[in-house]
Design a protein that fits this description.
2 domains; 5 helices; 77% helix; flat
Length: 146
């Protein structure tokens, strides 16, 4: 059974109990196709092997969050001058929130954890936030001790 790719990466389906193992002929044919792809267009092969659903959905999450913040700013700035423009800002926020939710569902829990680890570096977003909370506690303790 084929368990990895030529470049050493694994498929998201590796280890999945529901997929059917390939016959020896199918594995050989697949390896030949991969070798031909690497030989004829190494840039495409590298791009295809590095792009995942998580990366694409993560990029969309960033854009949705930026759209939400932009819609909020637009709504706050224009609502006092024109109610219609404020509603447009709200609709932009709503569309961004729906896009964020849909991409978050595509990623699932495992994808979200992988994405937050990659965004926050090796320690992840949770460690960053807990470190920030600890710094704030330490700052207030120093003020109380004075």
């Amino acid at each position: 059974m084929l368990t990895g790719r030529l470049d050493g990466t694994t498929s998201p389906l590796d280890g999945y109990a529901g997929h059917v193992p390939l016959s020896e002929d199918e594995e050989r044919i697949l390896q030949e196709i991969e070798q031909q792809l690497h030989a004829t267009d190494p840039q495409l092969a590298r791009e295809v092997s590095s792009t995942t659903l998580y990366r694409h959905a993560g990029r969309n999450l960033k854009w949705a969050a930026l759209g939400f913040v932009g819609g909020l700013v637009f709504m706050v700035l224009t609502f006092t001058t024109s109610t219609l423009l404020g509603v447009v800002g709200f609709l932009a926020m709503l569309a961004s929130a729906i896009g964020f939710e849909r991409n978050l569902r595509k990623m699932g829990r495992a994808g979200w954890q992988q994405w937050t680890r990659s965004v926050g570096g090796a320690t992840g977003m949770r460690d960053y936030l807990s470190n920030h909370q600890q710094r704030m506690r330490d700052r207030f303790k120093r003020d109380e001790e004075r």
